[in-house]
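Re: that chain you flagged

S.,

Sorry for the slow reply, it's been a week of failed gels. I finally had a moment to sit down with the sequence you sent. For the record, here it is as I used it:
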Amino acid sequence: MQKYELFINPKWLKKLEKDIWVDDHVPAVLKIDENHYAIELSYRGNVIRKKKKKSYHIIFQKPFTVNGAHEIHLNAEFNDISLCRNKLSLDFFDQIGIISPHSKHILLFINRFCKGIYLELESFDQYLLQKRNLPKGPIIYATNYFANFSLLTPENDLKSSLDEGYTIKNGDKNDLASLENLIVMINSFNNDEFEKEILNVLDVEQYFTWLSGVVCTQNFDGFIHNYALYQNSETNLYEITPWDYDGTWGRDLYGRKLEHDYIPITGYNTLTGRLLHFSKFKKLYKSTLSEILEQNFTIETQEPIIEELFQTLLPYISLDPFINLDPVGLKKEQSYMVEFINKRNSYLKQNLDTLI
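Prediction finished late last night. Pasting the structure tokens below so you have them in one place:
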């Protein structure tokens, strides 16, 4: 496992700790192998900020990019005792053909003190598009659970604006206006208009592949949060990509167990509900999900991946001062995840015929 070392002036550390909710960055130096990089550093995330083991957002300053990235995220994965769910999920989306941030585990030190095992994640931005040789295009983050493609909040209150829950990562206000037009279409077009026009603004097949990934991994927040929208400039269609998937593979974001049938086969958000009103879209989703259940979301495919990842972490778990897990506990968690795949796969297959 690669070693990352952060060097921060104590006064800047105190500034970070003074108010954990402030997103202001402070200067620091990141050492990777024998290379030193000038960076800006801040805390990131929501629930994790209250924990002793924090997550970090890093912006490279000098040089401006490192390995093609201007920003990276170091996730503590504190509520996931396996430290693996986020990576397994994002890699799973990659396997089924969805643009997904790449990730790797690293061992983090801050001012010479070991802070344990972290997950380094790519930022989903224009630099990622460039690295993947993908067309340029606006990128909009779903930053809270108001990003449900609806006119109403999850509490059924009228939203103050159509772009509530969204933040522009790459683009301008015109791109946000285009997203608002999509939300208007979803919520106000009659069935004939919607069935025709949605194909001109959304890559529906890609959307159903993404939906299959969320449904398989059972990310409770994934349908109205934890995603980004990318408007491909060549097709002019929206595509959707996952983000923050630690609450998956049988547990929620707090690490609590979730029953394998907790999330229905259709998931939930207004866009999905509107699409699945039409039989041709139902058939497309059924076909997409069925193929993934046969080829990707299986014990035969995923168990070797899980085993390899757990074996990679095993020699380092004793170095993490924030986790209380031994090899026996890690093995039990591995078995729990494999059991979840088996039960979840069976449950979804049994419900495929509801998609008619």
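What I noticed first: The chain has ten helices and eleven strands.

Talk soon,
D.
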